[in-house]
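ok trying this again, last paste got cut off
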Amino acid sequence: MSPNPDATSRHAFWRGAYRTLLVMLPRAMREKHGAAMMALFARDLERSAAHGRGAVWCAAAMGMTDLLGRGVYERVGEERAALTEPNLLVLRELATAFAMGFAALTTLMLWAHASRQLPGWRIRELPIGAAIEAIAFSIPFTAALTMPMAVFVAVLYTGTRARADGVQRSLQPGKQESRGTLRLAPLIVRASLLALFAFAWNSEVVPRANARLSSLYTGKPATAPNDRSMTLAELRTASQQLAQRRDVATNIHLREIAAGYSVEIHKKFAIAAACVVMALLAAGIARRAPHAGVGLQVLASLVVFRGYYIGLMGGESLADQYVVSPAPAMWGANLVALGLALLALRKGAEQLPLSKATLP
């Protein structure tokens, strides 16, 4: 039985998704087995089309899950073998660059925040001690935003230096290797660990600091916390209680509260996940532009930060106005950045004249 037209049109999407995920495999393995794996995946889709849409989805999911598992296994083995002393030195440089970038970005954003609040503090005649306390309790929400930004800056800076050295070594075969390369698997592992820390920070520390900050500005205890001063557990409990009310669908005020709860829940996850997304995007840019100087790195950072946070804040505004649901609104910026990262990682290495020793 030949597949129906709908199944055939779906196959183009699944084949494209599978082809994109092939980047998970090491380059040598992609070149040797990629075409055969792609043909096998397409054949499985054709066979499953005769059994309906559900069978196609199941075959596609199984094929891509197998590809991801194989890619992770091969990458981990390759990266473990590549963790020589020069490559460990690059990872230490990455940690140093992150610490310096995080400190600088957090300080700049705190200064900007304090400058905006200063007129209000003068009007309310806020004591110096209270102003210092307000700045201190502004650190948590500021750090939540600067962590992904610092990851991007650190990976772009370190990756660009490592790739540029790799290009020079490839053009000078007799030159002894003095630096390592920024390997993808260790980078993802470290970015994921930071994302877990950022998630805990966003879920527990930031809301409590926001509650205290609100008390400082209003001069009253935060007896009725808003969505930004509630922990993840409190948000989920409040959201579940609100969902049980029958008048939520007809009460505009309750709908706004429910939307705010949902937005804050997704935001805590999305901003933490941005640590991994920004690491991948910066690694891809470093591959495509290994000779980028500090000026281009700063420009790329400003463009990425501006675009990402406009998308994040714009999505929040759209979700609050019920234009889109909270999940795509808060994850949209991450998905766009991830798509760009995968594209850069897939095509960037093929355009650089690097030796095989420096390719992932």
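PB: full thing came through this time. The chain has a mean pLDDT of 81.
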